[in-house]
């Protein structure tokens, strides 16, 4: 699995979960097999351009949105931030609020 495959898979999973859909529901709408969606989300398969377009259309996101946070160089600060955002987007709002509160506490403690 390449880093790009993993990131694309995470992005697909996050957008799918934001819609509240299962892998099967996304597969039905995108006219793809649910197993293939699962393999993409886990970074086990390389996606074709055609399937990426079908998935983006089904999720009602642009290709730009789907690819915007992909930066293979993990040493760049933007990459770290995009990974944080990607992980938070997959969480429920309650978890996001909790994590934000914990981050505030941690940063306040670190700044002392």
TrEMBL record:
Gene Ontology molecular function: DNA binding; DNA-binding transcription factor activity
GO terms under cellular component: cytosol
Keyword terms: DNA-binding, Transcription, Transcription regulation
Q: Which InterPro entries match?
A: Cro/C1-type_HTH (IPR001387), Lambda_DNA-bd_dom_sf (IPR010982), TransReg_Diox_bact_type (IPR050807)
Which Gene3D superfamilies has this protein been placed in?
lambda repressor-like DNA-binding domains (1.10.260.40)
Q: Which residues form the HTH cro/C1-type domain?
A: 12-66
Record flagged with keyword Transcription: yes
**What PANTHER family is this protein classified in?**
HTH-TYPE TRANSCRIPTIONAL REGULATOR, HTH-TYPE TRANSCRIPTIONAL REGULATOR SUTR
What protein does this entry describe? Transcriptional regulator
């Amino acid at each position: 699995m390449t880093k790009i495959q993993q990131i694309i898979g995470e992005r697909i999973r996050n957008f799918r979960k934001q819609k509240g859909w299962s892998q099967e529901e996304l597969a039905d709408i995108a006219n793809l097999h649910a197993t293939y969606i699962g393999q993409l989300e886990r970074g086990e398969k390389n996606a074709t351009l055609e399937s990426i377009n079908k998935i983006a259309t089904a999720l009602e996101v642009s290709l730009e949105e789907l690819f915007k946070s992909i930066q293979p160089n993990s040493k760049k600060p933007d990459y770290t931030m995009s990974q944080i955002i990607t992980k938070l987007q997959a969480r429920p709002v309650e978890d996001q609020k909790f994590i934000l509160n914990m981050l505030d506490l941690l940063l306040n403690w670190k700044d002392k």
